[in-house]
Amino acid sequence: MNALTWLTRRHTTLPAEQQRRRDALPAPAAPDETPLAQQRLVVLDLETSGLDMRRDQVLSIGAVVIDNGAIQLGQQFECTLHRDDHRVSASVLIHGLAPSAIAAGIEPGEALLAFMEFLGDSPLLAFHAGFDQRMLARALKDTLNLRLRHPFFDVAELAPLLCPQADIRNGGLDDWTRHFGLQVQQRHHASADALVTAELALILFSRARKQQIDSLKELEQRLAGWRRRQQAPSL
């Protein structure tokens, strides 16, 4: 199945080579019953110019791969995107990306294509995935006229689902890394945050298997029930 079946049809002018690469991207795989230890997953973290999902831009992409039940340190992705119109804002105090780094970054189309080729047909994991999903989707649509259809799993949802005894409500990445005693060398750097999210995900997958959950399809079903319970009014 070719990605042409899931591209948007709006006319966008791309260089011929970028269009060829875009059209050769594989269609995403739906969550199935593949055991978690055999599932390839890409753990993503984005650094952005701010938190406005309609106006702010993706500045940096970091990703690591979980495959064969382990983090594959030989398979990592890190890229800073060039932005002509980038302006220094309060966000630079968080992610530390100086204007010089943005000016020296990779052309957005090239950066996004390289990431999508790295991603392949794999599902995505992120912490507070909704933000990363929307920001990546808009960047792909605006830059490549490509619709993002890869399934996203939110580690911020998986953690309380699988570890209710932790009693961490609306916890951030720092809350869960402290709970599990993970050593964090650096924060608010795309690749570093992706790596610690991947470490947390492996712990959660181990907990999932102990609860007889051993595939993304089963996780998806459990998450759907968990969300319904969270939304149900208290008696």
Low-confidence stretches: 1-11
Compute the number of helices: 9
Span of the ends, CA to CA:
48 Å
Shape: globular
Task: Report the sheet-strand fraction.
Answer: 5-15%
Strand order of the largest sheet: 3-2-1-4-5
Overall average pLDDT: 89
Radius of gyration, in angstroms, nearest whole number: 18 Å
Elements, N to C (H/E): HEEEHHHEHEHHHH
Biggest pleated sheet: 5 strands, mixed
Percent helix, as a range, is 40-55%
Query: Class by helix and strand content?
Result: alpha/beta
Find the count of extended strands (DSSP E, 2+ residues): 5
Protein name: 3'-5' exonuclease
Keywords: Exonuclease, Hydrolase, Nuclease
Pfam families: RNase_T
Region (Disordered): 10-32
Structural features, described:
By secondary structure, this protein is α/β, with parallel strands linked by helices. Helices cover 42% and strands 15% of the residues. It is built from 9 helices and 5 strands. The protein has a 5-stranded mixed β-sheet, with helices on both faces. The radius of gyration is 18 Å and the shape is globular. It starts with 15 loop residues before the first helix and ends with a helix.
